[in-house]
Design brief:
This protein is an alpha/beta fold. It has 2 domains: 106 residues, Rossmann fold, CATH 3.40.50; 172 residues, Vaccinia Virus protein VP39 (Rossmann fold), CATH 3.40.50.150. Helix content is 40%, strand content 20%. It contains 16 helices and 17 strands. Strands 9-8-7-14-15-17-16 form a 7-stranded mixed sheet, sandwiched between helices. Strands 2-1-5-6 form a 4-stranded parallel sheet, covered by helices on one side. Helix 11 links the parallel strand 7 and strand 8. Helix 8 packs across helix 16. The chain is globular and about 65 Å long. The chain starts with a helix and ends with a strand.
Length: 353
């Protein structure tokens, strides 16, 4: 590889490019597809793919016969392992920790939505944006979380990410919710976060707006929250304006705007509310975060609601979304938290005036 290209690599990429031991993938699916694309750009061909015993039996992935870890340890001995899937399951996370104690293990930060990965050179090109977002963080936990997330994204080192978990004694600052609140759930999925809100406020709310585009999820949302009063439902995608979008999804959380798929209705939160106030808005819209925020501009400007947004669908969301909210309305206080998840999914921002 050319010297100037090596200089532009992120440290985890440097380690892979310079590896003298076999490079193997742990996991299959879209995450592994994205890591394979990264390896291809480095001119690195993985030596093998492995999965847990239940998934490895007779499975092929991109022409690789999927092995078990024990088979590869017997064949290769030492390896450099790239984690290629996400999990919050304690037993699976412990298995990953056990593997990392025996082998060099990297968890590359690739984009959840779309392609690409966190690049050190891009981060430093955007350093002014990052520093501005950092200056808006309101507590030491947020600032430490920001630093640890940046270190993890650059290195792929799970120890940095685990240190951020230990700071996150709370995922948000919603403990002091306003009384009689209007709650807007953008990306309501099956109603789980609606129910979390209702439990958190002990049923003392004024109204709930629940927006979910995927039809199977929407039906679950209706069933799971049918006992609640004063809920307004929209089978639509949260967006910057009313339109139709092409949407991919099959009933899970990862449905998103795509170049191919089915057509779904989209609307802005401002249109859904018809100038009614909102006190709390939750955004988990699988990569449409900026558009959904733009569709909430009037509501945010006039009512200064608490904003809770996922910040992990793209590698730089953890600072770019802070700046985007600040461009809509200044004066918010920002709290950054990292929930327990390998890799750095479930990064969350809470903003309060």
């Amino acid at each position: 590889m050319q010297t100037d290209k090596l200089k532009a690599l992120t440290p985890w990429q440097e380690r892979v490019a310079a590896a003298s031991k076999p490079v193997v993938l742990y996991g299959m699916g879209s995450g592994a597809d994205k890591i394979l694309s990264q390896l291809d750009s480095l001119g690195v061909k993985p030596s093998a793919v492995f999965a847990s015993d239940d998934f490895a039996r007779g499975t092929l992935f991109h022409g690789y016969k999927v092995s078990t870890l024990s088979q590869l340890e017997e064949h290769f001995g030492d390896m450099l392992i790239l984690l290629a899937f996400g999990t919050s399951l304690p037993d699976v996370m412990k298995r990953i920790d056990d593997i990392s104690a025996r082998h060099e293990l990297i968890a590359p930060e690739v984009s959840v939505i779309g392609s690409g990965a966190f690049e050190k050179c891009v981060f430093f090109e955007r350093i002014d944006e990052a520093e501005h977002a950092f200056s808006l963080l309101s507590d030491d936990i947020s600032r430490q979380t920001f630093e640890l997330l940046t270190a993890y994204k650059i290195t792929g080192d799970l120890s940095q990410l685990k240190a951020a978990f230990s700071l996150s004694t709370e995922s948000s600052k919603l403990a002091d919710m306003p009384d009689n609140a209007v709650y807007c759930d953008l990306g309501a999925y099956n109603g789980d976060t609606v129910l979390d809100f209702v439990n958190g406020c002990m049923g003392r709310y004024k109204k709930i707006y629940a927006i979910e585009p995927e039809k199977k999820n929407y039906q679950k949302l209706l069933r799971n929250t049918s006992h609640l009063d004063n809920v307004v439902y929209f089978n639509a995608a949260a967006w910057s304006h009313s339109c139709e979008l092409t949407f991919s999804g099959s009933g899970g959380r990862q449905g998103a705007v795509s170049s191919s798929g089915k057509t779904v209705r989209a609307l802005s939160l401002d249109e859904a509310l018809c100038a009614e106030r909102a006190d709390i808005i939750k955004y988990d819209v699988e990569g449409a975060d900026y558009e959904a925020l733009d569709g909430s501009r009037d509501t945010i400007t006039h009512y200064s609601p608490i904003i809770c947004t996922a910040a992990y669908h793209r590698p730089y969301d953890y600072f770019a979304l802070i700046n985007h909210i600040d461009s809509i309305k200044s004066g918010y206080r920002y709290y950054l938290r990292q929930d327990t998840y390998y890799p750095a999914w479930e990064t969350n921002i809470t903003a309060r005036i």
